[in-house]
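Bumping my old thread because nobody answered last time. Still need a sequence for this structure:
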Protein backbone atom coordinates (compact mmCIF):
# COMPACT_ATOMS: atom_id res chain seq x y z
CA UNK A 1 0.00 0.00 0.00
CA UNK A 2 1.42 3.39 -1.02
CA UNK A 3 1.91 6.18 1.51
CA UNK A 4 -0.54 9.08 1.06
CA UNK A 5 0.68 11.18 4.01
CA UNK A 6 2.16 14.52 2.85
CA UNK A 7 5.90 14.83 3.51
CA UNK A 8 5.68 18.65 3.48
CA UNK A 9 3.13 20.44 5.68
CA UNK A 10 1.67 17.15 7.01
CA UNK A 11 -0.85 19.14 9.06
CA UNK A 12 -2.64 19.95 5.80
CA UNK A 13 -3.31 16.28 5.14
CA UNK A 14 -6.39 14.32 6.15
CA UNK A 15 -7.96 10.93 5.47
CA UNK A 16 -11.38 12.01 6.77
CA UNK A 17 -13.90 10.37 4.42
CA UNK A 18 -16.41 13.24 4.53
CA UNK A 19 -13.71 15.70 3.48
CA UNK A 20 -12.43 13.36 0.77
CA UNK A 21 -15.89 12.82 -0.67
CA UNK A 22 -16.70 16.53 -0.71
CA UNK A 23 -13.52 17.39 -2.61
CA UNK A 24 -14.08 14.54 -5.03
CA UNK A 25 -17.74 15.35 -5.67
CA UNK A 26 -16.91 18.97 -6.52
CA UNK A 27 -14.32 17.85 -9.08
CA UNK A 28 -15.10 17.55 -12.77
CA UNK A 29 -12.01 15.58 -13.84
CA UNK A 30 -9.51 13.27 -12.26
CA UNK A 31 -6.07 12.38 -13.58
CA UNK A 32 -5.12 8.70 -13.68
CA UNK A 33 -1.39 7.91 -13.76
CA UNK A 34 0.01 4.51 -14.73
CA UNK A 35 2.99 2.71 -16.23
CA UNK A 36 2.94 1.09 -19.65
CA UNK A 37 5.97 -0.73 -21.02
CA UNK A 38 8.17 1.09 -18.53
CA UNK A 39 6.94 4.54 -19.61
CA UNK A 40 4.88 6.72 -17.22
CA UNK A 41 1.53 7.96 -18.56
CA UNK A 42 -1.31 10.08 -17.22
CA UNK A 43 -4.81 10.63 -18.57
CA UNK A 44 -7.41 13.20 -17.44
CA UNK A 45 -10.91 11.74 -17.43
CA UNK A 46 -14.42 12.30 -16.13
CA UNK A 47 -15.62 10.23 -13.23
CA UNK A 48 -18.43 9.56 -10.78
CA UNK A 49 -18.29 8.51 -7.14
CA UNK A 50 -20.46 5.84 -5.50
CA UNK A 51 -19.82 5.52 -1.76
CA UNK A 52 -16.08 4.86 -1.34
CA UNK A 53 -15.24 4.17 -4.99
CA UNK A 54 -14.84 6.27 -8.10
CA UNK A 55 -15.76 5.02 -11.56
CA UNK A 56 -14.33 5.91 -14.95
CA UNK A 57 -15.19 4.75 -18.45
CA UNK A 58 -13.88 4.65 -22.00
CA UNK A 59 -14.49 2.88 -25.29
CA UNK A 60 -13.82 -0.85 -25.19
CA UNK A 61 -11.20 -0.14 -27.89
CA UNK A 62 -9.36 2.33 -25.66
CA UNK A 63 -5.76 1.31 -24.94
CA UNK A 64 -5.93 3.44 -21.81
CA UNK A 65 -8.65 1.58 -19.96
CA UNK A 66 -7.76 -1.83 -21.37
CA UNK A 67 -4.19 -1.37 -20.17
CA UNK A 68 -4.99 -0.36 -16.59
CA UNK A 69 -7.58 -3.02 -15.69
CA UNK A 70 -6.06 -5.24 -13.02
CA UNK A 71 -3.13 -2.85 -12.59
CA UNK A 72 -2.12 -0.47 -9.80
CA UNK A 73 -2.62 3.22 -10.63
CA UNK A 74 -2.52 6.54 -8.85
CA UNK A 75 -5.19 9.20 -9.30
CA UNK A 76 -5.68 12.80 -8.26
CA UNK A 77 -8.34 15.52 -8.16
CA UNK A 78 -7.43 19.14 -7.49
CA UNK A 79 -9.27 22.44 -6.93
CA UNK A 80 -7.33 25.71 -7.15
CA UNK A 81 -9.29 28.09 -4.90
CA UNK A 82 -7.12 31.21 -4.65
CA UNK A 83 -3.79 32.84 -5.43
CA UNK A 84 -1.91 33.80 -2.26
CA UNK A 85 0.23 36.91 -2.77
CA UNK A 86 3.00 37.33 -0.23
CA UNK A 87 5.67 40.03 0.27
CA UNK A 88 8.28 37.86 -1.50
CA UNK A 89 8.08 35.63 -4.56
CA UNK A 90 9.44 32.80 -2.42
CA UNK A 91 6.39 32.87 -0.13
CA UNK A 92 3.69 33.11 -2.81
CA UNK A 93 1.31 30.15 -2.67
CA UNK A 94 -2.13 28.82 -3.55
CA UNK A 95 -5.19 27.91 -1.58
CA UNK A 96 -6.20 24.49 -2.83
CA UNK A 97 -7.99 21.25 -2.06
CA UNK A 98 -6.67 18.01 -3.48
CA UNK A 99 -7.08 14.25 -3.22
CA UNK A 100 -4.52 11.68 -4.25
CA UNK A 101 -5.00 7.93 -4.05
CA UNK A 102 -3.70 4.55 -5.15
CA UNK A 103 -5.83 1.64 -6.26
CA UNK A 104 -5.95 -1.52 -8.29
CA UNK A 105 -8.35 -1.05 -11.21
CA UNK A 106 -11.34 -3.41 -11.35
CA UNK A 107 -13.49 -3.79 -14.45
CA UNK A 108 -17.29 -3.69 -14.05
CA UNK A 109 -18.87 -6.24 -16.38
CA UNK A 110 -22.45 -6.65 -15.14
CA UNK A 111 -24.74 -4.88 -17.69
CA UNK A 112 -27.11 -3.60 -14.99
CA UNK A 113 -24.23 -2.10 -13.01
CA UNK A 114 -22.81 -0.54 -16.17
CA UNK A 115 -26.18 1.03 -17.02
CA UNK A 116 -26.46 2.35 -13.47
CA UNK A 117 -23.08 4.03 -13.89
CA UNK A 118 -24.05 5.57 -17.25
CA UNK A 119 -27.13 7.17 -15.73
CA UNK A 120 -25.25 8.35 -12.65
CA UNK A 121 -22.36 9.74 -14.71
CA UNK A 122 -24.63 11.71 -17.05
CA UNK A 123 -26.79 13.18 -14.29
CA UNK A 124 -23.74 13.98 -12.18
CA UNK A 125 -22.55 16.45 -14.80
CA UNK A 126 -25.96 17.50 -16.13
CA UNK A 127 -28.73 16.76 -13.57
CA UNK A 128 -31.96 15.88 -15.37
CA UNK A 129 -30.34 15.00 -18.69
CA UNK A 130 -31.12 11.28 -18.67
CA UNK A 131 -34.84 11.97 -18.29
CA UNK A 132 -34.60 14.19 -21.37
CA UNK A 133 -32.54 11.99 -23.70
CA UNK A 134 -33.27 8.50 -22.38
CA UNK A 135 -30.93 5.74 -21.19
CA UNK A 136 -28.06 4.40 -23.31
CA UNK A 137 -28.87 1.47 -25.56
CA UNK A 138 -27.70 -2.07 -24.83
CA UNK A 139 -25.17 -1.78 -27.65
CA UNK A 140 -23.76 1.45 -26.23
CA UNK A 141 -23.37 -0.17 -22.83
CA UNK A 142 -21.68 -3.23 -24.34
CA UNK A 143 -19.05 -1.28 -26.27
CA UNK A 144 -18.01 0.71 -23.20
CA UNK A 145 -15.61 -0.43 -20.49
CA UNK A 146 -16.22 0.80 -16.95
CA UNK A 147 -13.63 0.54 -14.20
CA UNK A 148 -13.73 1.05 -10.44
CA UNK A 149 -11.01 2.63 -8.29
CA UNK A 150 -11.15 2.31 -4.52
CA UNK A 151 -10.73 5.28 -2.17
CA UNK A 152 -9.46 3.05 0.65
CA UNK A 153 -5.90 4.29 0.11
CA UNK A 154 -6.54 7.98 -0.55
CA UNK A 155 -5.95 11.21 1.34
CA UNK A 156 -6.62 14.92 0.96
CA UNK A 157 -4.29 17.88 1.29
CA UNK A 158 -5.75 21.35 1.83
CA UNK A 159 -4.38 24.87 2.12
CA UNK A 160 -6.76 27.63 3.23
CA UNK A 161 -6.36 31.06 4.77
CA UNK A 162 -4.32 34.21 4.30
CA UNK A 163 -0.65 34.93 3.59
CA UNK A 164 0.57 33.61 6.96
CA UNK A 165 3.95 35.34 6.86
CA UNK A 166 5.14 38.38 8.80
CA UNK A 167 5.05 41.63 6.83
CA UNK A 168 6.96 44.87 7.29
CA UNK A 169 5.15 48.23 7.19
CA UNK A 170 6.46 48.97 3.67
CA UNK A 171 5.34 45.68 2.13
CA UNK A 172 3.58 45.72 -1.28
CA UNK A 173 -0.08 44.69 -1.65
CA UNK A 174 -0.54 41.19 -0.22
CA UNK A 175 -3.56 38.95 0.24
CA UNK A 176 -5.60 36.39 -1.67
CA UNK A 177 -7.27 36.49 -5.08
CA UNK A 178 -10.14 33.95 -5.13
CA UNK A 179 -10.60 31.77 -8.21
CA UNK A 180 -13.88 30.25 -9.30
CA UNK A 181 -15.23 28.02 -12.06
CA UNK A 182 -18.63 28.74 -13.53
CA UNK A 183 -20.83 27.87 -16.49
CA UNK A 184 -21.23 30.22 -19.46
CA UNK A 185 -24.29 30.81 -21.64
CA UNK A 186 -25.47 27.66 -23.47
CA UNK A 187 -24.89 27.70 -27.24
CA UNK A 188 -27.26 25.55 -29.27
CA UNK A 189 -25.77 23.39 -32.01
CA UNK A 190 -26.10 24.90 -35.49
CA UNK A 191 -27.70 21.69 -36.83
CA UNK A 192 -30.82 22.34 -34.76
CA UNK A 193 -33.71 24.68 -35.45
CA UNK A 194 -34.94 26.82 -32.58
CA UNK A 195 -35.23 24.91 -29.29
CA UNK A 196 -36.32 26.13 -25.90
CA UNK A 197 -33.59 25.76 -23.29
CA UNK A 198 -34.74 23.04 -20.83
CA UNK A 199 -35.32 24.11 -17.24
CA UNK A 200 -32.69 21.68 -15.94
CA UNK A 201 -30.05 23.43 -18.08
CA UNK A 202 -31.22 26.84 -16.86
CA UNK A 203 -30.79 25.53 -13.31
CA UNK A 204 -27.32 24.21 -14.13
CA UNK A 205 -26.15 27.51 -15.57
CA UNK A 206 -27.56 29.72 -12.82
CA UNK A 207 -26.13 27.48 -10.12
CA UNK A 208 -29.33 26.21 -8.52
CA UNK A 209 -28.89 22.82 -10.19
CA UNK A 210 -25.11 22.64 -9.96
CA UNK A 211 -23.91 19.00 -9.81
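Sorry it took so long. Here it is:
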Amino acid sequence: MSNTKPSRYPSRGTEDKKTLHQIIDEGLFCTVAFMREGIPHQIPTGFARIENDIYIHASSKSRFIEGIIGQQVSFSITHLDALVLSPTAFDHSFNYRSVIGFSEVEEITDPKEKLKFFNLFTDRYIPGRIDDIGEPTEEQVNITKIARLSLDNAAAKIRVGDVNVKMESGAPWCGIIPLEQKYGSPQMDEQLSERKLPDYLKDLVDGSGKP
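The helical segments are 17-26, 63-68, 111-125, 129-133, 138-142, 199-206. Let me know if any region looks off to you.
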